[in-house]
Every structure is written in structure tokens, then in C-alpha cells.
Automatic annotation (TrEMBL):
This is Ribosomal protein S18 acetylase RimI. Keywords: Acyltransferase, Ribonucleoprotein, Ribosomal protein, Transferase. One of its GO terms (cellular component) is ribosome. PANTHER family: AMINOALKYLPHOSPHONATE N-ACETYLTRANSFERASE-RELATED (PTHR43877:SF2), AMINOALKYLPHOSPHONATE N-ACETYLTRANSFERASE-RELATED-RELATED (PTHR43877). InterPro entries: Acyl_CoA_acyltransferase, Bact_Acetyltransf, GNAT_dom. Residues 5-155 form the N-acetyltransferase domain.
Length: 155
């Protein structure tokens, strides 16, 4: 039996589940704070207030209140390049560890791409840490191509 997946904008009450997802691997465990850290709530409200920036959760079950099994943030960025194209950036993507390989991640990303397309984005882009080879295989399986080398500077 396949789980029904619902992707919806996150609610404040979803934050503990989202933080738990973000912290559930070696990289996340090293950088995330306890879920009750007030910075998460401040960031959530800043995302809510910024036009074209939404934190989404994926829930299973028949209602939009089912358990949170995934999350992603989708940010629309108008640009000058590509004749003024808008890009959609996907960030903070996670699927619950016990649901990986079930197809739910592919369904969630298909929803993210559909949202980007409905928002008139010309492309969807993302970064993935070099230490995540399984994630790289996942992205390629979803139709993404590894076209650029990413760089970051921590401030």
C-alpha cells in the first residue's frame, strides 16, 4: 500500500518535526540546535514574511495533519540572466530516514517542481553537499543534472 502524500506550507507547529529531519544525519547533527532554539521560530517567521519564499512539509495519511515525513524550502528568485528568467531554489530537503527509498521523496520533489512551474520559474536549482553521494544519485534520478560546482563562504 502506497502512502498518500500531501505537500503543504509548513505551520509553526511543524517546526520541531522539521528540525528533527534536518538534524537526522551526521552533517545535520553537527550543525542543528535543539528544536526549541528561538532562532528557528524567528527564521520561520522571516520565511513567511518574504514573498516567494515558503517552507513546505510533506505529510502522509488522509489529512494534512498526518505525520511530517519530509520538508523542503522553495525560494523564487527573479533574475536578469536567461532573458529575465525566474529561478526556483530548493533548499533544506529531507525525507524521514525510515521513509527513504519508498518513493515519497520523489513524490515530494515532483510537487516542488510543479509548484516552481506554476510560479513561472524557468528552472529549478539546488545545491547538495559533496558528502551526500546517495542524495546526488537521488537528484539525478529526478531529472536534475549536475551542471555546476557550488561554493559557499560561512560568515
Amino acid at each position: 500500500m502506497t502512502d498518500t502524500l500531501i505537500v503543504r506550507p509548513a505551520r509553526e507547529t511543524d517546526l520541531p518535526a522539521v528540525v528533527a529531519l534536518l538534524a537526522d544525519d551526521e552533517l545535520g547533527a553537527a550543525r542543528e540546535a535543539p528544536a526549541d532554539d528561538p532562532r528557528y521560530l524567528a527564521a520561520f517567521h522571516a520565511i513567511e514574511e518574504q514573498r516567494g519564499n515558503t517552507l513546505y512539509v510533506a505529510v502522509t495519511g488522509d489529512r494534512a495533519t498526518g505525520p511530517v515525513v519530509g520538508c523542503f524550502q522553495l525560494i523564487f528568485m527573479p533574475g536578469i540572466a536567461w532573458a529575465g528568467a525566474t529561478r526556483a531554489e530548493i533548499e533544506n530537503v529531507r525525507i524521514a530516514r525510515d521513509r527513504r527509498g519508498s518513493g515519497l521523496g520523489a513524490k515530494m520533489i515532483a510537487e516542488a517542481v510543479a509548484i516552481a512551474r506554476s510560479g513561472a520559474a524557468a528552472m529549478v536549482q539546488l545545491t547538495s553537499n559533496n558528502a551526500r553521494p546517495d542524495a546526488h544519485r537521488f537528484w539525478k534520478a529526478q531529472g536534475f543534472e549536475q551542471s555546476h560546482q557550488g561554493f559557499k563562504m560561512m560568515l
